[in-house]
Specification:
With about 325 residues, the protein is of the alpha/beta class. It has a single domain, classed as 3-Layer(aba) Sandwich (Rossmann fold), CATH 3.40.50. The chain is built from 12 helices and 8 strands. The strands form 2 sheets. A 6-stranded parallel beta sheet has the order 4-3-5-6-7-8, sandwiched between helices. α2 links the parallel β3 and β4. The two termini are about 30 Å apart. The N terminus is likely disordered.
């Protein structure tokens, strides 16, 4: 873990120097020597010198206002132990200081770096398979990340599926990180999809129609409908150039052309979660376009229940066992 900690610290130093973009990762081998204050150059070791590791990229919940990493660590440790995968849990920017699309752009940058051919010297291992997981707002970011990867190079469409004008198209691509200086179009178009998507109580719809319609699933003690509505309005303020039905904000509205290229997915929802109806609809849409997807309903538990396995809740413990089994299956699928 010390090597990974060092790699993360170096990643943050790169960000501070505005050198965290994928194509400039080789520039990380030029760094300041704190003792001599001299610039030293390191030759990038050949990739054959590094072991390969599977990675779980986990995006925490917390309604974009906080990170739930303290509650997530126990089940993440179980996942890592079961799969022998490295868990990477980035801390993205939070509300109210930063709104959409800041967090999504940061997650996208991390994903670009992890799937880079140049990442091994930074982390000490080559990334083999990568599964993206997320709970609640983290589930939104995980699904939106897949939408964003698949949307690169496609024409911008409004919420009704109609091609937007040139100005709107330009505004959309301004939301993509690395425009111009550090990330070129060819590299973006070569991004690979995750090998799996695991979502718990995902927030897939932040649109106003959701806020105004009645719901029989809005009495969750952790995430009542009113709280979800309030978060939606802060995360996507009126000043935002895109509407809440945009699939980068509400992945449930992604087109079939996007959804059909989604990775194998597993979704968990509970009884009174306001996200239940949208999770069912999202799972149905994925299945309809041929994606290997499963939705599992868990009774007697509130929104964002993954961390409750440690507290002894049997339903959560069963979910934990299922998640470990699914992750192992996904990581081992190509080893036959």
């Amino acid at each position: 873990m010390s090597g990974l900690s060092t790699a993360v610290q170096r990643f943050h130093r790169q960000s501070e120097r505005k050198l965290s973009r994928l194509p400039t990762i080789k520039e990380s081998f030029e760094e300041e020597d704190e003792n001599s204050h001299m610039i030293r150059r390191h030759a990038a070791p050949h990739h054959d010198a590094f072991p390969t590791k599977d990675v779980i990229l986990h995006l925490t919940g917390g309604g974009w206002f906080s990170h739930t990493i303290a509650g997530d660590i126990p089940f993440l440790l179980d996942w890592s132990d079961a799969t022998d995968a490295v868990v990477i849990c980035p801390e993205y920017s939070l509300l109210p200081k930063e709104t959409f699309p800041k967090a999504l752009n940061e997650i996208f940058d991390v994903y670009c770096s992890l799937t880079s051919n140049d990442i091994a010297p930074l982390l000490g291992f080559e990334v083999n398979r990568i599964i993206v997981t997320g709970e609640s707002s983290g589930g939104n970011l995980a699904a939106a990340l897949c939408v964003k990867i698949l949307s690169i190079g496609m024409p911008f469409l409004d919420e009704d599926g109609v091609a937007a004008n040139e100005k709107a198209t330009e505004n959309y691509f301004q939301l993509l990180p690395g425009k111009g200086k550090s990330t070129n179009t060819k590299q973006l178009l070569s991004l690979r999809m995750p090998d799996g998507l695991l979502l718990g109580s995902p927030t897939l719809n932040l649109s106003f129609p959701k806020c105004m319609r009645p719901s029989v699933h809005g009495n969750d003690p952790v995430m009542p409908m009113g709280l979800l509505n309030a978060i939606s309005q802060v995360y996507v303020p009126e000043s935002c150039k895109l509407k809440r039905k945009n699939p980068l904000i509400s992945p449930i509205y992604a087109s079939e052309d996007i959804l059909e290229s989604f990775p194998p997915s597993l979704l968990y929802v509970c009884a009174d979660d306001p996200n239940l109806t949208d999770s069912v609809a999202f799972n149905t849409r994925l299945k309809r376009v041929g994606v290997s997807c499963d939705l599992r309903y868990v009774p007697h538990l509130p929104h964002s229940f993954w961390g409750l396995a440690t507290a002894g809740f049997p339903e959560a413990q069963n979910v934990q066992a299922e998640c470990c089994a699914w992750l192992c299956e996904r990581f081992c699928e190509d080893e036959a």
